[in-house]
């Protein structure tokens, strides 16, 4: 099945790109760029990186203003639940974003249009693209249109209360530090890539995890770190 018309997507999100190249990049998965010669120079990973930072600021600013009575720790926990693969992939599923993505044939055959890691990354890339094409306030307006309903219904989204959230609370409370996630490496073909990540603080690695996305690998690393901390208490 071919990807849907991007003009339809712009109508869905309520934003028309001035430079359509940003949208094209946001919708181009690395599997497609590796498969199609003319697109080898770009995919959506840099826009995903940018979009993650923009969404972090949008979310932080919003919950800071909305939840005046919450402590810093409570806001940090809430933000980590919102800035997450479950929330972003849920938004992407609602708008059928996967149907607009440029994916390799192998990725399409393996269910890539519905894979949560791809959908979550694509939403971040889309917000990054809007930011580049316009400005922060426009990106904020578009992002909040999709985020607000999710923020009000986090308990209904599977996976938002995860090991990363719990680990962050434990480490902040005991060590006054933030856990740091470091990508160790990747292996496998683009349509079936495996990521390996470690989590550390105070220059000590406490957990290592693998997964089909960076976020999944980080969650598994956090789970291992929590198990290690549990054994240290005994």
Overview of this protein structure:
Helix 4 (45-66) crosses helix 8 and helix 6 packs across helix 8 (116-133). The protein has a three-stranded antiparallel β-sheet with strand order 1-2-3, covered by helices on one side. It contains eleven helices and three strands, in the order H-H-H-H-H-H-H-H-H-H-E-E-E-H. The protein has helices at 6-13, 20-26, 30-35, 45-66, 72-82, 85-94, 105-109, 116-133, 136-151, 163-175, 214-233; strands spanning 180-187, 194-201, 204-211. It has two domains: 6-156, Ribonuclease iii, N-terminal Endonuclease Domain, Chain A; 163-233, Double Stranded RNA Binding Domain. The chain has 234 residues and is mainly α. InterPro entries: dsRBD_dom (IPR014720), RNase_III (IPR011907), RNase_III_dom (IPR000999), RNase_III_sf (IPR036389).
Itemize the secondary structure elements and their pairings.
Blueprint: H1 6-13, H2 20-26, H3 30-35, H4 45-66, H5 72-82, H6 85-94, H7 105-109, H8 116-133, H9 136-151, H10 163-175, E1 180-187, E2 194-201, E3 204-211, H11 214-233
Antiparallel strand pairs: 1-2, 2-3
Helix pairs in contact: 2-8, 4-5, 4-8, 4-9, 5-10, 6-8, 8-9, 10-11
Q: For the terminal residues, how far apart are their CA atoms?
A: 55 Å
**Highest CATH level, the class of the largest domain:** Mainly Alpha
Q: Figure out the total of helices.
A: 11
Quote the beta fraction.
Answer: 5-15%
Q: Care to count the β-strands?
A: 3
Trace the largest sheet across and list its strands.
Answer: 1-2-3
| CATH fold-level name of the largest domain | Ribonuclease iii, N-terminal Endonuclease Domain, Chain A
Family: Belongs to the ribonuclease III family.
Enzyme class: hydrolase
Domain RNase III: 6-135
Active site: 52, 124
């Amino acid at each position: 099945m071919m990807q849907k018309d991007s003009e339809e997507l712009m109508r869905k999100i309520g934003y028309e790109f001035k430079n359509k190249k940003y949208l094209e990049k946001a919708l181009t998965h690395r599997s497609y760029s590796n498969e199609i010669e003319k697109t080898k120079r770009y995919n959506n990973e840099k826009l995903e990186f940018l979009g993650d930072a923009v969404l972090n600021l949008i979310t932080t600013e919003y919950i800071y203003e909305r939840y005046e009575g919450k402590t810093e720790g409570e806001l940090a926990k809430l933000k980590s639940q919102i800035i997450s693969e479950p929330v972003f992939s849920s938004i992407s599923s609602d708008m059928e974003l996967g149907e607009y993505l440029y994916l390799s044939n192998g990725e399409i055959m393996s269910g890539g249009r519905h894979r949560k890691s791809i959908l979550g990354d694509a939403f971040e890339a889309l917000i990054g693209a809007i930011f580049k094409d316009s400005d922060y306030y426009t990106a904020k307006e578009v992002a909040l249109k999709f985020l607000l309903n999710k923020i009000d219904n986090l308990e209904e989204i599977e996976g938002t209360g995860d090991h990363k959230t719990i680990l962050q609370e434990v480490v902040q409370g005991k060590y006054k530090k933030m856990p740091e996630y470091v990508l160790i490496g990747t292996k496998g073909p683009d349509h079936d890539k495996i990521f390996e990540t470690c989590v550390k603080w105070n220059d000590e690695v406490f957990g290592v995890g693998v997964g089909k996305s960076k976020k999944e690998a980080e969650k598994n690393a956090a789970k291992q770190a929590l198990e290690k901390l549990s054994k240290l208490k005994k």
